[in-house]
Amino acid sequence: MADKKMVDYKGLKVVVTGGGGYFGCKLGRALRDKGADVILFDLKKPEKMEDLTFYKGSVCEKNDLETVFQGATFVFHSASYGMSGREQLNKDLIEQVNIQGTKNILEACYTHSVPYLVYTSTYNVVFGHDEIINGNESLPYLPMDQHTDHYSRTKSIAEQVVLSSNQSPLKDGNVLKTTALRPNGIYGEGEQRHLPRIVSYIERGLFAFTYGTKDNKVDFVHVDNLVHAHVMAGLALTGPNHTAAGQAYFISDGRPVNNFEFFRPLVEGLGYKFPTINIPLKIVYFIAFITEIIHSVVGKYIYNFQPILTRTEVHKTGVTHYFSINKARHEIGYSPIKYDLQGVVSYFKERGHDRKALNKHSSVSPILVNVAIAIIFTLVMLSWIRISS
């Protein structure tokens, strides 16, 4: 039975998977401010709960979803695994969370008649290594064998499962409405996945060069804009037209910029010099490829080190790919606000990351560890070749 008018969130039960994370918790607060009865669902409790309800559980465990989905009207599925760093190399867990976890979410929606599902996807469902300039949602999914990482591959599979589930019958006789949002490069004060890693590289001298052409551009999205997009997408699933149902949307600040220039205010704001050396993209990609090979052996049996870059990260930061947000503007009412990195700079300076305030007695640089591992690995392989011959 179709809705006669667009609903709001007031008084409705809303579940946010991945709610213990930076974005999920922010989304939960925004939905609470709209009057929703919000439940954050995750393995780890967020630091600042305020008056939100938290339920500990995993999307991989069907039983964990049973209680939390009962009586829910909206589900915002943002839980995922394997986006960056060494997490990208744990294929088994990536598949369990991103594919099977999403299927479990859909099954719980069917069983408990949850009518609206908003899925947090990624640019990488269409982007691999070729330039995309002002792309739009008509672009086809990237062929599975062209993905250089398992995270992107599994997110693509999961998005397709979610969108193909639109209009699926629910237990109460109604149908499920689904939509997918595709963000890229989330930033903001307090972001814990990417920015602390970048600041660590800056402090340890690893942010010493750029790569790719100086005119390459990528998209970023401030967390508050991404939250706004999700709130609007949920509403656009309701009403007589169900505008967002079965649709995917690219979400960004709408201001493509060179990846390294984007971080210039952060580098210089913390008191460091912006790098002047530029290295060809192919060389950096080859180094990342070798690092992944080394990690597949050393990381599993000896030392699970943090790769400086993976192949996917090289493409995401060094190859032009940005997308139009016109569809999101027109269909779900997405209207991004202009942000910069000054708030992020202040956030890190307040926590002692100003160069002048840093203790000079730092630990051994990760780059030295990676180099040492590479040398040891090479010597072992050469020794094995000599013995075999």
From TrEMBL:
Keywords: Membrane, NAD, Oxidoreductase, Transmembrane, Transmembrane helix. Residues 15-278 form the 3-beta hydroxysteroid dehydrogenase/isomerase domain. GO terms for molecular function: oxidoreductase activity, acting on the CH-OH group of donors, NAD or NADP as acceptor. Pfam families: 3Beta_HSD. The chain crosses the membrane at residues 283-303, 367-385. One of its GO terms (biological process) is steroid biosynthetic process. Belongs to the 3-beta-HSD family. This is 3-beta hydroxysteroid dehydrogenase/isomerase domain-containing protein. The lineage of its organism: Eukaryota, Metazoa, Cnidaria, Anthozoa, Hexacorallia.
